[in-house]
Amino acid sequence: MFEIRNITLDDAGYYNGGIIYGGAGFDGGVLLIVSATEEDLESDQSDAVQINPLYGPEQLIFTPKPDLNKYDKFTVKEGDVVGPIFCSADCNPPCNVTWKYKESNGLKDALSQNGILLLQSINRNVTQIICLSRWKTESVEKDFTLDVQYFDDPISYVNDEWMSDRITVDIQERKPLQLSCFVNGNPTPTVRLGKSQNGGTVILSEARDHWSNYSFGTGAQCSDTETYVCSGQSTDLKTNTKAIDVNILCEPRLDKEVEMKTITESVKTRIVIIPIVAYPSPVLSKLVWLGPDDLPTNITTTAVLQLNGVIYKHRIISIISGLEDETFGEYKLLYEGKVLTNVFIRREEYEMSRGHKVVIVVLSTILGITWLFIIIYLLFKKQLLLLHKIDKRKEESHQLQTQGMAQHYDDLQDTDVDNTYTALGRTDQESPYEETL
């Protein structure tokens, strides 16, 4: 509303009203001021007139203004909230301002009050947030587009069958096998399909897509039994994984990658260790040994052991006992009536082993005798050395005694007999011996 006061003749004319220039020119109210005059007369000034222009919204303003990305979208993570945001419109009388959000199935009312969008939880189906201003029959709206980011758990498929909550699947050997990994997310995640091996993961396929696939071209093999990992990685390096155990059902057969062993326990006993590939593990009761006469034997199969923790590799341990001349020869191991392998039991195996033992005993004996001679020689040599030292000491002692006696004899040659006796304490000479008749 505006007023015009103290009107004069110069104020006569049309007046338009509005909040802006354009509105005053086209949408505002109009006032005509007329001044009537006669010659040498002038009319009195009219009273002041109040004007209340009516106008609808021309633009809407968001406060605060949403921060849009380079694609002019407002980025938000699924589950986060948007708001509060105030949507203002200049209207007279005031406009009715409401908020709505757009999903794939249409528009829905958002929580708002007096033009303020309250906290609104966002899911991946929300594409737009819209402010709507109505004035009489006119309406103006303003929106911003959402970029809702989300990242789902991986989903595994085996031969196009969704594994859902399953963690194990069995596939018949030589049948087609294709693994697929699907990860839904925005932005598009990196999807990998890998195989667990030696404590790590060997990547089989990788794609910057929602899908990653891997096909076993030759069909499923027993060695394909393993844990496979489906994983997805988002742009913020968050990773989700799901593992599934794929077991290949394969019939028992000889494992050619591992050597079969025959251990000679005694003359009449052999222990046979046979490597087998099979899944599931062979059943002991289904194992049968045939002797050289192709008749079942009483050979005992004591155990079926898993090899190095690999579920499809096993060792069958059997004991062949009571061997006689007529029982040496070819033995056959059957599983459910099918031959797994042939084992030749020969006497030469034991004789050769006995020959080795004889050689070892002979060599040990020779070595023992040699050491005995060496010890006797050393003792004898030590004894000779000792005797030599004793003889040498005796000779030295004899030489010393001889030298002493010679010196004493020399001294006696220079001494009077009488003096000698005197020296011996004899005062009288002995009378010569006279024989009395």
TrEMBL record:
It is a single-pass type I membrane protein. The keyword Transmembrane helix applies. One of its GO terms (biological process) is cell-cell adhesion. Keywords: Disulfide bond, Glycoprotein, Immunoglobulin domain, Membrane, Transmembrane, Transmembrane helix. The chain crosses the membrane at residues 358-380. It is found in: Membrane. InterPro entries: Cell_adhesion_signaling, Ig-like_dom_sf. PANTHER family: IRREGULAR CHIASM C-ROUGHEST PROTEIN-RELATED, NEPHRIN. One of its GO terms (cellular component) is cell-cell junction. This is Ig-like domain-containing protein. GO terms for molecular function: cell adhesion molecule binding.
